[in-house]
Amino acid sequence: MKDATAPVDALRIEHLEVLYRVGQRERRVVTDLSLGIRPGESYGLVGESGCGKSTVALAAIRYLARNGRVSAGRILVDGRDLMRLSGGELRRLRARSVSMVYQDPARALNPTLRIGLQLAEVFEITEGLKGTVARERVAEMLARVQIPSPARVMSNYPHELSGGMQQRVIIAMALASDPALLILDEPTTGLDATVEAEVLDLIGRLRAELGTSVLFISHSLAVIGRMCERIGVLYAGELVEEGASEEILRDPRHPYTVALLRCVPSYGRRKDQGRLETIPGFLPTPGTSQGRCVFADRCGNATDRCRAEAPPVLAQAGRLGMRLARCFYPDRALQLPHTTGSGAPAAATATPREAVPLLRARNLSKTYQVAGRAFKAVDGIAIDLWPGETLGLVGESGSGKSSLAKLLLGLSAPDAGSAVELAGEPLNALAADRTQSQRKALQIVFQNPGLALNRSQSVRRLIQRSLRLLKLPRARREARLRELTASVRLTERHLRERPRQLSGGLQQRVSIARAFAGGPRLVVCDEPTSALDVSVQAAILNLLADLQVEQRVSYLFISHDLNVIQYLSDRVAVLYLGRVLEIGPTAAVFAGPHHPYTAALLSANPSLDGGAGGRVRLQGEVPSPLDPPSGCVFQTRCPRKIGRICEEREPALLAAAEGHAIRCHIPAAELMPAAALMSNSNELRENR
Amino acid sequence: MILKFLVKRALLSLITLAILSLLVFLGGQLLPGDVGRAVLGPLADARSVAAFNHQMGVDRPLPVQYWDWISHFVTGDMGRSFTFRAPVAPFIADALRNSLKLAALAFVLVVPLGIAGGVLAALRAGRWTDRAIVLLGQSLGIVPEFISSIVLILIFGVWLRWLPMSADWPEGSGALTQVRYLLLPALPPVLIFFGYIARVARVGTIEALNADYTRTAILKGLAWPTVLRRHVLRNALLPTITVTASLIGYLTGGLVVVETLFHYRGIGALIYSAAKAKDFPMLEAGVLTVGAIYAIASVLADLVSAALNPRLRAGGS
Amino acid sequence: MNDSAAAVTPSAPSAAAETLRIALRSRTLLIGLAILLFWIACALLGQRMTPLDPYADDLLTTLAPPSAAHWFGTDQLGRDVFSRVIIGARDILIVAPLATLLGTVLGTVIGLGIGYFRGVLDDVVSRIIEALQALPLVIVALMMLAAVGTSNATVVLVIGFVFTPLIARTVRAATLNEVDLDYVAAARLRGDGPLAIMFIEVLPNVLPVALVEMTVRLGYAIFFVASLSFIGFGIQPPSADWGIAIAENYSLIGSYWWTVLFDAGATASLIIGVNLVADGLNSVFEP
């Protein structure tokens, strides 16, 4: 329970240093970290992978792994010195004063116990409640996190709930003890966009009600910007900047923050407006930057002084107390030189429309059998793809976007009646039955390069095996290998390595090289940057854009990140439960008027600039594809549902404008564009 | 829900048994080539071999033989022994009863010990208790039964004279006496399987200890004994239950060496003597019976697993 | 754009050399290897390594206890036990590894095949494997050996056959994991046929699993062959095999312990040696 009388910091960390023992050596993973979170305040810790943010969270709850230890500094939780607590005191602290919510809710729940019991445990420990009294409190808490029919959910097992519901249960468990501090470590990564938005809203609302302090850890600047009042930027274990959210995001004072902000494709940014910025160089090994600035090697502003001395933490006055920057020249941060070279924009792709589309699919369907029941992952989709264009594919889980990609590539066979043509020639269903030239023409870049590259082969071998598509004589093969390697900016040295020895970004380059080995005409990009850090993502997107211009390929670009889609795609298709709900030029789809689902997706997108305005809330969860709704598939959640017609008849895909079609009973003229929603309640501000 | 699960599992087991019966039958009828020749030896003349084959019915078409055999088998008629010229079923019944007694004793000794050892090792993972238990389990597990039996007989039977050297107790002995006679033969399999059970329990416990849900329980502030009892052990022991099915099968039918050395008329010894005498009906019946025991044990094990792990109850994860 | 420089972890000269170096650092591996090599030498050199003639009867000094003349004493026919123990290694070191190799090769090919093709083939073969696993290996072996007769060759075949389902099951599980990974999809997309995918793409990743299984099975094979020899269904007399020697002499164990103990010790040491090697390899492949 919180102590209302003395306003002590919920969390206070002073000069924290954490070491991990790896093999024989100890690595310093967190260096000289200090931060404070006031009662009721929400603080965001942001950084890329390996920066140490999760370590900070674990240290704050004294749950470091066996090979980790706090070697210096103090941690005070709700005024108590964490490292000085006995076992019993620590347990009491964990029960009453601090709670933690993690990334993977499914694994955080005991699969063999009912939900009700797992929640009741919290009341058992904090208030000694049992039996009916405890069950009532559990039901109350479940209702508070907006779980429908709490009584039924209480007797469910974790695997019977969806991801969003599971995370709500975890949040309920965390807040049931009314802690002083709530730590959230990437709580919404892996959840669908609309579900994520709901969960974030929930967290914001509960926080306001209970007055809990929050330490929010994420790699996403947009999410942090939306949820937190103050931000701390972590790089290689050091806090390089701290201040009020608005200050940090609009007026950063550290070169890393500046560079990071520039990497993220901001809302409205398109590829013909210029390439994305990247951060040159690579993350230093933790603990090797003593006596110098940890960011110096990659900093465009760095001077010799930066490389020879560790910069102090300079404090300046800010909106919410002092703002800090660990830099010699904070006022020069915004003058950080841009890294896009000549700044040449990716060539505009306004290609003259040729007569025959590169890829044409009609009536594409795929039915799967699960436990005796059939469900349609893809239902009667028609798609055209023109040479040299990028078609973006957007949708949440169950939308069928991955299935669609597999059907087009020939990795799975569509239902009878489907027809796919490549440059006017019909394609056989499975890749194995297609001609070699057809196989050369359609390739893919997968999401997770670690799994997409054969770990037992060297990079050279990997690419060579795909070069066999070309049937070149020996001499030419080697030359072509070099060409490919150069085109994805890899070097000779990389060819000798195994995938495991390369970083994620380099692995993805190899994957791209492999896809381009045969000179394809269409490359499916299935979430190619989702597993990568922001700065690396920018480099890969630039590469893909460059290759598209050089080689005149088309892309089918699948992503859940709307900003990336907007940056790279010429046209966008929005999928839901295996059907296309909207398709059209990117600008038109994003600006509106658009389908209600598209509106919801856009409003759920946490964006750095405040995005598209007010929230469009959706009821419930994505329906199971085994039991799709009658009539329009979206009617069970649609905020613009007209009435019976939506339940009885599925709307046709009607043209709203040139090349822009929407599947809705509401005529396009009445579908509001996003901008009009801005005048409605702007719930963004309330949730901070 | 559980009933549907049970029925489904039982049906699967029946299919497995049916396949097994086919394999056993083929092993007994097809492999030897000419059964009569195999039984009577290379020196017997062709006419005796043909007469034998005709008398035993092994010159009929294979599907007919199979159907005849299996349809009688399920009603309890297991054919006639070549060696004894008498029905096989009573021999099997007696031998099975004996083997089940021995198996029960060994099971009751090895499973608690193995689980205790494995869980303890996991709780002290990396420290010397862990290494000692794992090493002990490994060392005991690689000594063949015939060697450990001989050593045990030597120590407890010959030198110390604490326990009887062969497992034939006097007629009408009470339960306690029978246990005394069965203790020595039960020890070699206990020694061998202690390490195996401990290893499975250890791995299961370590996984449960490292799981996210254990972390959740600890960070809720629960006391360690409660975390262990309610969260860790329930999940840790699931893999162990799965292996108990094959353990029961082995303890019942696989103790050929032990039963022979201790002169115990169990089903392992019966199969062994049938193999030596090339008494194929007896051999096939014995093998199939052991398979049936395993099938029953695995259905039971699955039931217990489903009771503990709700994800299995729906018939899939 | 250069995230190239520090992005690569320092690579070894070659993967094989690196593996070898790690392997040689493992003490368990080295000790096990030493034991194994000793017995292999005994098997290969046979009589050239023995101090006395292992086949020479001497009816005047039967059942003599260990002494300077006969380090391990003599047996019922006056033969030198020490020499017999040395040459007793030969048969088991031929039969057990051959059987293991046979089982591993067959099991790997079957496991790969059903793991890759799935469908009806997988269903049928998996059911058969399940059915076979319902039985303790020893009685399957007894049944088969009763049917085909017992000789070194049939023992190799039968034990190999009996091991095949176990290894196939493990390899199948590993293959199922691999086949789901995207690199297999990438291979299909460039037109690689099933054989190419199974043996060029998937097998190298599955091989470590198969090899570890093989070393573990080898220890068990020795265990198994020794036990079968003891009950007369393994290596046949008049071999000096340890199992046979123990079977012939164990009734004498009360007063003439040396006729049994050294053979038992040799069996145990060989099994320990193989297990140590298996452990050592295991820790190399899964640190």
Keywords:
heterotrimer, A: 688 residues, Rossmann fold, eight-stranded mixed β-sheet, 33% helix, disordered C terminus, C: 287 residues, mainly alpha, 11 helices, 70% helix, elongated
Describe this structure in words.
The complex is a heterotrimer of chains A (688), B (317) and C (287). With 688 residues, chain A is an alpha/beta fold. Chain A is 33% helix and 22% strand. In chain A, a hairpin with a 2-residue loop joins strand 11 and strand 12. Residues 677-688 of chain A have low confidence and may be disordered. The radius of gyration of chain B is 24 Å and the shape is globular. In chain B, 46% of the residues are buried. With 287 residues, chain C is an all-alpha fold. Helices cover 70% and strands 0% of the residues of chain C. Chain C has helices at residues 15-25, 27-45, 81-87, 89-117, 119-133, 137-148, 152-179, 182-189, 194-230, 242-249, 258-285. Chain C is elongated. Residues 1-12 of chain C have low confidence and may be disordered. Chains B and C meet through helix 1, helix 7, helix 11, helix 12 and helix 13 of B and helix 5, helix 6, helix 9 and helix 11 of C.
| Class by SSE composition of chain C | mainly alpha
Name the CATH superfamily assignment of chain C: MetI-like
Q: What proportion strand of chain C?
A: under 5%
Helix and strand run of chain C = HHHHHHHHHHH
**Count of alpha and pi helical runs of chain B:** 15
Give me the CATH fold name of chain C: MetI-like fold
Oligomer: heterotrimer
> What gross morphology of chain B would you assign?
globular
Span between N and C termini of chain C?
A: 36 Å
Number of beta strands of chain B: 0
Largest sheet of chain B: none
Question: What is the share of helical residues of chain B?
Answer: over 70%
Q: Poorly predicted ranges of chain B (pLDDT <50, ≥5 residues)?
A: none
Number of strands of chain C: 0
Helix content of chain C: over 70%
Poorly predicted sequence stretches spanning 5 or more consecutive residues of chain C: 1-12
Shape of chain C: elongated
